[in-house]
Specification:
Blueprint (H helix, E strand, L loop, with lengths): L11 H12 L5 E3 L2 H6 L13 E4 L3 H11 L9 E4 L14 E4 L7 E5 L4 E5 L4 H8 L4 E2 L12 H7 L6 H4 L6 E7 L5 E4 L4 H9 L3 H15 L1 H7 L25 H4 L8 E8 L1 E2 L3 E9 L2 H12 L5 E6 H8 L21 E9 L2 H17 L5 E8 L1 H12 L1 H4 L8 E2 L6 E2 L5 H14 L4 E6 L4 E8 L4 H4 L2 H14 L17 H5 L3 H11 L29 H5 L4 H6 L1 H4 L18 H6 L6 H17 L4 H5 L5 H16 L5 H10 L6 H5 L6 H15 L4 H16 L3 H9 L1 H11 L12 H8 L2 E2 L2 H5 L3 H5 L1 E5 L2 H6 L1 H13 L3 E4 L7 H6 L2 H19 L5 E3 L2 H4 L18 E2 L1 H8 L8 E7 L2 H6 L3 H11 L2 E5 L18 H10 L1 H4 L5 E4 L2 H11 L6 H12 L1
Helix pairs in contact: 7-8, 8-20, 16-18, 25-28, 28-30, 34-38, 38-48, 42-44
Amino acid sequence: MIAQLPAQAPAAHYTTFLEALRGSGFRGQISADYGTRTVLATDNSIYQRLPQAAVFPLDADDVARVARLMAEDRFQQIRLTPRGGGTGTNGQSLTDGIVVDLSRHMNQILEINVEERWVRVQAGVVKDQLNAALKPHGLFFAPELSTSNRATIGGMVNTDASGQGSCTYGKTRDHVLALDTVLLGGERLRTHPLDEAALEQACAVPGRAGEVYRVARDIQQTQAELIERTFPKLNRCLTGYDLAHLRDEQDRFNLNSVLCGAEGSLGYVVEAKLNVLPIPKFAVLVNVRYASFMDALRDANALMALKPLSIETVDSKVLLLAMKDIVWHSVAEYFPEDPARPTLGINLVEFCGDDPDEVHARVAAFVAHLQADPSVERLGHTLAVGADAVTKVYVMRKRSVGLLGNVEGEVRPQPFVEDTAVPPERLADYIAEFRALLDGHGLAYGMFGHVDAGVLHVRPALDMKDPAQAALVKPISDEVAALTRRYGGLLWGEHGKGLRSEYVPEYFGELYPALQRLKGAFDPHNQLNPGKICTPLGSAETLTKVDGVTLRGDLDRTIDERVWQNFASAVHCNGNGACYNYDPNDAMCPSWKATRERRHSPKGRASLIREWLRLQGAANIDVLAAGQGTQAWFKGLPGRLRNRWAQRQGQEDFSHQVYDAMAGCLACKSCAGQCPIKVNVPDFRSRFLELYHQRYQRPLRDYLIGSLEFSVPYLAHAPGLYNAVMGSRWIGRLLEGGVGMVDSPLLSRFNFQATLSRCGVGMASVPALRELTPAQRARSIVLVQDAFTRYFETPVLAAFIELATRIGYRVFLAPYSANGKPLHVQGFLGAFAKAAVRNARQLKALADCDVPLVGLDPAMTLVYRQEYTKVAGLEGCPTVLLPQEWLVQALPEQAAVQAGPFRLLAHCTEKTNVPASTGQWQQVFARLGLRLATEATGCCGMSGTYGHEARNQQTSRVIFEQSWAQKLDKEGEALATGYSCRSQVKRLTDTKLRHPLEVVLQYAERQA
């Protein structure tokens, strides 16, 4: 049995500060629970720092309350760090103080001025969120980031983020018109370019704002020559206290140059006014393939002379990982494979403009250069023409950061020297030395980046759970820092300094005290993100060192090796944050989108389960042995009831916090399909629930859900009685209050036997199938039933049988057997394994007769391919096809009828785990001349029985409203492949959606 785990409390002086903050009128949330702190202890770096607490301000006034309180003498020991999306690769937002999360509430677009091309936004607005709002106006905010679907504007400002196209569009700083910053003490500082008269006025203002301006002006005036010598002439310049741009091109004084890239060490940026640009109307991406990565790098210098918008590069390691990823099906055509001459490097060269003819002419000239220039061996090129095609390729490139973490084994590429910048003309030689350096340590690595800017992301592969390999981080960082300086470059060219700030004093030399003066003017007691960039002048505190912070691997290695290998899906989460995707019309993690709580995300849940496993091990609990326990249910009942009573009396146990996060998961498996690392929350969620309920008694609801597939065939003998009982108001109240279930579905009263008789459907058995001739087997299928379409939505099942019969196939009905998915979702893994073994044995016997197996509901059917494969002792399960996978081969081409458009709202599990499935539906419809558009949707909010659980009602409705509710009234009939999706729509809108099969049958009948 698992152990009780008392949660670690914050330090006493932080508890006092939080109590004072509650009494100050602070209106946001304050969280000091161990679960929230654990989730915020990591970012996209190798580090892990447990904060004392987290606060979530409602608005700028809340931020000012925090800043005023921490400036009081009694709280000078308090340390706070602002946080946005948490996508930093260098621990910028990690702290052992208090996290001030500006993303949960402060995420509003406040103003869009189309005429003057500017926007005003709060710090928590996500870049892609902003660009989605700007797109109808033909505008966008540059530059482009690989993390644009989760990176916040506040984070971009604080790291002076750049990215793809920076040679054309510059860095974030180049697009900041004004910033609104809350200073220590609560004073608001609104910064924008100032002429001399305005600068004099700013310097004369009393208080911290005036002091800041006076110190910054004095540094600019007295250190101008030293600044000019120290700051490099690079596209990426230097993130953090950019003194070189205190004077802009119009000789105005602009304090934004030091706030951009300050990593929250000077104040809290709460709002930004940003310059926005017209979206180029036409784009072409030339995808050039090379036999070696060094050829790609060397070629980039010559290609830059042809003035493309950008040149991005990717090496063979990233390409090979992309080929195994969900993204590959959409871009494979642009990277044809030749086994005799494998592609080991690519350059993605973009041309854009408003005139397609002009862009095509530039591309033609570029292609002519490729064909005539023999200086580098190129294997060929392809063109991605138009915005949609270009976007598809860039989505693959954007996933490079995450994909590098998805290699096999424990040795994985790690980010700690991965954003160096050197003059572009020296990049190839620099990388040759960089590679030699890593080769000297015997390390593999992956590379991708922005060759036009001289920035290449290089990630050495290390097993951070191995102390010997983890110890290489510091010496490699030292060597790379020296190497970049030798080439006139930077260790931190793009992703900020963060916990690499120990190299700052050496790099700045004589200028470093000027940075310290500036820090002291903003933050005299080193309370704002201390240890980063610099310390206040005269402070006894030092910068945090690379090897002075706990690494995630340090904690992971304390978990028993058997355990972390068994829970590898969680332990391998590298924090890239792809699950924080803001887009409501993307299926990734609906619970995160609806709650905005990071514990309700794959990354958050992976962090919690890692810590839970570590603490269980520290309590000498072998969770693998506990998971195989066979204690009789009745024998363990008294203990479980006692533990549950203790929980209700307030007994602390970190397991309860983990349970709350796991219970909020919809088990939609979008994470398993879309996460670059393939973090599979439903898998380790089920395993955790099984262990948790060894100690704590399950609610009755779990047993009702788990037994549904077994009980429904008996209930179906009296559908009228069942429906009358379940439809009564008092039963509904009883189920909601006593069991925790709402809106229970009613049984179908469709005459299924009539369909079976009319279509000549027989029961599938090995003897019956073996009697078929080879020709008959070729025209037969076995239909694998699921509980939902068989008993609750029988007309859809009947439609499939009618369709298969109409196109000349004989249907055999597999004997109904519980699939086990509800058991798996609720963590009844022992019962699930028994169901899986029984089913797999039956299905294998049928499949051995060479007749295809077809299942109807995607969520149920995919269990045979996914969860069944992980059951111990199960020797494989035959493939059960989705209906479109079978129809795309079986349905003959028929006369076009030109009907539609129909719109497909696909099941989230189906489209994220079988990405080709939606395209197959389009092919099926095209066989009949029907037009089918694929609608971009998130989750419907039902996901099996999730939406029927009373505890999930509010979240389920929010998820539905975020995406599906917006799609139903558009032109064209909406179709849904998932039973749960159709059920949710009917429940919340009283609208009945058809399954695509019903449309196919309708038009197949017309043409018969």
